[in-house]
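Comment thread on ticket #2218

A.B. wrote:
> Attaching the input chain for the structure job we discussed in standup.
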Amino acid sequence: MDRFDCARQDCDVWQRRGIAVLARHSWLLLCLLALLVSACGSMDSTSQSPTTTAAPRVNGFGTAANHVHAMLALPDHTLVLATHYGLFRSIDDGKQWSGPDKTLNDMMTSSLSSSLLNRQRIYVLAEHSLSTQSGGVGLYVSSDAGVSWKMASSVTETGKMYTIAAGNRSANEVYAYVPTRGANGLLVSQDGGQHFSSPGSLPFGRILGILPLPARPGQLLVFSNDGVARSTDAGAHWTVVNSFSSSVYNMTTGGPDSTIYASGDQGIFASNDGGKSFKLVDKNVYYTGLAAVPGQPQMVYGKTGRLIYKSSDGGYSWKALPQVAGNLENLVPDPQSSTHLFLSLSYPSGVALFDQQSAAWSSLTPRP
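C.D. wrote:
> Ran it. Output below, let me know if you need it in another format.
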């Protein structure tokens, strides 16, 4: 085993069992996240300066410097990939891809979300990846599953959004989190992102994500370094969920009335009462990513830096999938087949598909 393999193995152990240490020190986690985002932007803004030769494309997603920020799988065989250099789209489960999107060009895109009531409605955040870009920075919306895009609101109107989540009261509802607004940083729009307002004060100083519950209008969860809170009135009032005593950094659910899973520095939790309470189902694992499978409430995937794990019993036990080469990013179950799992890769950007029947990965990355 060479030193690079050792480093990758150490990284996997750190993310699977040691990330709790970092999560307990919220200030350190936030500082590191800020440095990571800063380094991402500064590296790419200088790597393609006018005085240097453009880097060659390594595949259909661009150069080796490109990396994935978010991925979305829709029920009509559509995949959408948000990368540091543009938005890419497939309408045949990844067999063929188009992009970068002409409206967004090679802007940095992130935080994809589709409406729970109209899957054709998609939201994405976009900002400049190069100092020479002039496109509008802010929230973009598509009403045709990503065929076309238009700007809904700019960063000058709302402040810089950290994450977005389509709401559950109407197809036009979308939530956004703007950290610079403090306790009033959770915003909601009822007109497709054109106008936002604060529904109420958050119970935590800073949140890491938003989870509107499918088919439960106005009910949502937020998770943070301080735990989890639940609202039944679209964020106007909050109740802190007392099942957690420390950080929760990922939550997922497979659909209406399905199990809600959470990963935190205490382990893996599950809720079967709409997030009112959670049960610790595995205290020995910690995953940086979780993905619940639609229509299969007991099936959930977890991700570390090097490996993907699967549980078929509600998170009580886990089995590693075959290893796939690359830097693992987003896990997205196929909404049309519970036996398929999509995975995005970074440096360079790529997409892979796992088929449970063959127990193997196949590449969906387009050639240059």
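A.B. wrote:
> Thanks. Noting for the ticket: Helices lie at 3-24, 26-47, 155-158.
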